[in-house]
Amino acid sequence: IQEVEQKEKLDSLINYAISTTDIGIACYNIISGEGYATEFWFSNLGEKVNKSGLIQPSYINLKEGDKAAITDFRQNLIKGKAGSFTNDIQLQNQPNGRNKWIRESIFLRETSEASGPVVVDINFDITADKVKEIIEERKVKEVHIAYQDSDRFINSISHEIRTPLTSIVGFSKMLLTEQNPKEVENITSIIKRNNNVLIELFNNILSIAKIDSGLYKFSKDEVKLNGLFRELKTATVHMLHNEKRLTAKNIEIFAEIPLEDNVIVTDEWNFRQVMVNLLSNAVKFTKNGTITFG
What we know:
Blueprint: H1 2-19, E1 24-29, E2 35-37, H2 39-44, H3 64-78, E3 84-91, E4 100-110, E5 118-125, H4 127-177, H5 181-206, H6 208-212, E6 221-224, H7 225-242, H8 245-249, E7 251-255, E8 263-266, H9 268-284, E9 289-293
Parallel strand pairs: 7-9
Antiparallel strand pairs: 1-2, 1-5, 3-4, 4-5, 6-8
C-alpha cells in the first residue's frame, strides 16, 4: 500500500511539473505508434495534437539535417543498433516567422521482437538559450574581425609613417653637406613638407574614432600638382634608393610635369599618400626599366 501511495504521489508530482512547464513528454512504440504524449510534446515539435492515441511524428517543420538525423536514429533503433538520441534541433516555418530551437532526447525504454522498441521522448524549448549563444558567437566573430582590422591598420600606418620619416632623415643628412643655396632651399622645403605630412598623419590617427563613427570629413584644398609631383619624385626616389629597391632592379622614376601650373581641389594629404603608394607598388611589380607618372 505504501509503495502504491508513493508511486501515486510521484506520478502526481510529475504531472504537475509537466503541466506547469513547457517540457514535452511522450512514451510510445516506434513501430505501431501506440502510447501517449503531452500537448507540449506535440507543440514543441510543431505538430498537431493527435488524440487518437497514435504517436507518429512527421517532423515536417524540422530543418532537413535534423529531420534526417532523427529518421536515421529511429531506423537504427528498430534494427537494434541504437539506444538513445539527444540533439538540439531547429524548427522552421513558425507562426511568428522566426525559427525555433528545441532539445530532443529519445531513450529506449524496452524492446521485443514481437512489438518492437518502446521509447521515452522528451523535448523542451531552448530558443532563448540558442539566441544568446548565437549573439555571443557573433560578438566573438566581431572581436576577431576587429582584431584583424586593427592588425592591418597597424601594418598600414607603419608604412605611412615610415615614408615621410625616411625622407626627413635622408634629406636632413643631405642638408648637412649641401653648399648650393638653391638646393638647400629645395631640401628644406621637402623636409618641412614631410614634417607637415607626419603631423597630419598623427592627427588622423588621433581622429580614428571619428572614422569609425563615420564622422571623418575630407578636406578640400587647392593642390598645385606641378610642385607636388616634383616633391613626390624627389622624396620617393630617395626613399626607394635608401631601401635599395631601385638600385637592385635598375629602375628609374620620371615625372612628366607641364610648364603651366595645374591645380586641383582635393584632400592633399590623402592624395599624396595614394600617389606614394602607387609609386611604391609600381616599383614592387616592375622588374626593370622606367616608371613615369604625371
